Amino acid sequence: MEGNKWFIPLIFSTLLIIFFLNSTSKYSFHEIKPDQDLSIFVESKLKTSPTRANSTIPKLAYLISGSAGDGERIKRTLKALYHPLNQYVLHLDLETSEEERNELVKFVKIEPTFVKIGNVRVIERSNLVTYRGPTMVSNTLHAAAILVNEGGEWDWFINLSASDYPLVTQDDLLHSLRTIPRYHNFIEHTSDLDWKEEYRAKPVIIDPGLYSLNKSDVFFVEPKMSVPTAFKLFTGSAWMMLSRPFVEYLLFGWDSLPRTLLMYYTNFLSSPEGYFQTVICNVKEFINTTVNHDLHFIAWNNPPKQHPHYLTVDDYREMIESNAPFARKFGKNEPVLDKIDSELLGRKPDGFVPGSWFGDTNTTISDYMGYIVTNITSLRPGPGAQRLTSLISAFLSDKDFDKKHCL
């Protein structure tokens, strides 16, 4: 009964929005004649930012998010991912204490590198993020909007959690992406819902994070939904690397599909694993931009459980052989992270990852201010670049690559 009392007002408000959209759209409808100039429609005039030339070094925009107790992990992950060319947004959700959030802000404000370069931001007004709920989607879009508005030029948006960690240096990653067309979207996806159709597409859920300050799991209400006919459902990984044009389409949504699907996925179980896939695979301008991989090494139990298992030293060799640039999930202070720092990243405790922009000694950053500025656009790729290039090339050179989009 507790869940049911929210169902009627929620459905009523959704219907009201749909009625409003329909009622306003009928006044702007024009009959299209065969020889009519389609430029009268506003959709034909709105364009995304042009992709940057491959002659330039790519720039990445990161979201690193966490919850209560993840402040130190975010700091470590940020330093392992840092490069002056990139942009970073950090988010600790509303479950985190004010003290922990303030400590993260203080860390960003006093680190000389971040102060000098000015490319790290902390979301001040924290969002309450519910696992499996649409609040995770809205938090991702919130960070993307900040990066589009304040982050200057960048090519790809990457969302990570505090339990993610890189397996390659940023010099490796930027070097490997330099020859890749910048309209590509690395997003795992499939239309074969299998068991997810019954257990995710049909149940109706309410995410308490939409209206409550207290974090709790989603709950189910009746009746169930039918599978939609207005668009085709896709599912996949919640972790992705999205192109700037697609991110702008998600935010500006000039044909309204992103907003329509956002309303639909408000009541969809595990919406972070379906919203982005369903949008990109239902828009003809973006269907052929998909690369079916989330750039992560993730180890699942057999049979799979709700969460992947935590990675340890036992998984180290398999992580490397995957050629993926990221891996998850790692526990707090897991010893394998020190092994990754030492053997793959060359990173010393509490230091940055060495590259052309920063020396191997990892001494106080203030000693390197002039060096950083003069070498910011130089890359020093290592073995990680070879592994990652091999992974990406395997997808893009597949003779059937152009036939495997959004299947």
UniProtKB/TrEMBL annotation:
Subcellular location: Membrane
Keyword Oxidoreductase listed: no
InterPro entries per the UniProt record, alphabetical: GLCAT14A/B/C, Glyco_trans_14
A GO CC annotation given for this chain: membrane
Keywords, sorted A to Z: Glycoprotein, Glycosyltransferase, Membrane, Transferase, Transmembrane, Transmembrane helix
Membrane topology: Single-pass type II membrane protein
Pfam families referenced in this protein's UniProt entry, alphabetically: Branch
Any GO MF annotation of the entry: glucuronosyltransferase activity
Keyword flag Magnesium: no
Name of the protein: Uncharacterized protein
Native source organism of the sequence: Anisodus tanguticus
Lineage of the organism: Eukaryota, Viridiplantae, Streptophyta, Embryophyta, Tracheophyta
